[in-house]
Amino acid sequence: MARNKHPEQTFEKIVVTAARLFVEKGYEQTSVQDILDATGLSKGGLYHHFKSKEQILDAVMQRRIQYVNKRFQELIRNTPGKNAKEKLKKILGQLAADAETHALDQALASQLDPHFVVNGIQTCVDQDAPIVAGLIREGNHDGSLHVQQPELCAEVFLMLLNYWANPVLFHRNSEETKVRLRYLQSVMIQLGLDLIDDSLIADLIQAYVQ
Amino acid sequence: MARNKHPEQTFEKIVVTAARLFVEKGYEQTSVQDILDATGLSKGGLYHHFKSKEQILDAVMQRRIQYVNKRFQELIRNTPGKNAKEKLKKILGQLAADAETHALDQALASQLDPHFVVNGIQTCVDQDAPIVAGLIREGNHDGSLHVQQPELCAEVFLMLLNYWANPVLFHRNSEETKVRLRYLQSVMIQLGLDLIDDSLIADLIQAYVQ
User: Under an 8 A CB cutoff, do B117 and A118 touch?
Assistant: First the structure.
């Protein structure tokens, strides 16, 4: 068999195809053979890059982290706002409406694939929260926010917003979800992070219904 | 082969053995064959009760839910206290020190088996929080607590205490965990649920170190 002259393209192909299969079938229901069939690669071609399905999962998750980080950074650079609070509110609104960000997460969450839920929780606390904390510090500085311990506040906010208030994880209807988003709104106001408004709640409910 | 005259004992044996194997090896690394070997059952003997490993997992998780509920109810009945707040604080202290409650959870969490983490999150919000909310309502009634929306407050409290502040899930050291427990203490004080004190924080750090 001819040697692959573009190993990075093969790597890419495996990761993209595996992500699609994990979304369609669930991680545990996807076999290495399924990935071979869908990519048309030989066993040797795949094992050159990945020794196991777990390693492919790691690469898929790594890509999700990179994607969200890139998207976050883009939004931070390109979202106008008279201060950090307004900027953060707009960014949250855009993320809620951003179908692409949700595609992988939602599809995986709706299958409740526990690997993705746990990885998502770790990513939101370890990777996303520090980015939000940076903007909170900016808001404390420009006077639009008054948050003590921005890092910890961001962790709590994202953990509750993305997971506790997630209807898929707890099989909740829109009304039950709305009640929780309103409670989260009141909690965050008490912590000085007044970002959740009626329009964000409406956008989130809308995103979850889809 | 003689028919089993005590099907409920066989069921029990499978669930207990499977729980032990899941703890020792992890859920995904445990095969049905491992469970057959460890119980000495035939394939037919096991499949009479469970059609798949997933069904065994469900039974193990069901048992964990029943155990924690029973333990909670016992503590609520048998823990003395001059009011609901004092009672809740003592119950939390006892749960933190209760090795048996932690055995399954900790062992599974330390392997970070995502099935157990996700099921644990769902159980804590859907099953444990309503029990805590009952005691919070009692505290609102006897004047020892002043909590709005006891159900939602209990959900947020348990989700943050058991998962966000969990060092195993985020690979944190004792100091990083202590900082989060102190922040949670200040958040819960603002929500009117002043239950976390220095001795609970010390007990939790101690329990996690083990």
Answer: yes
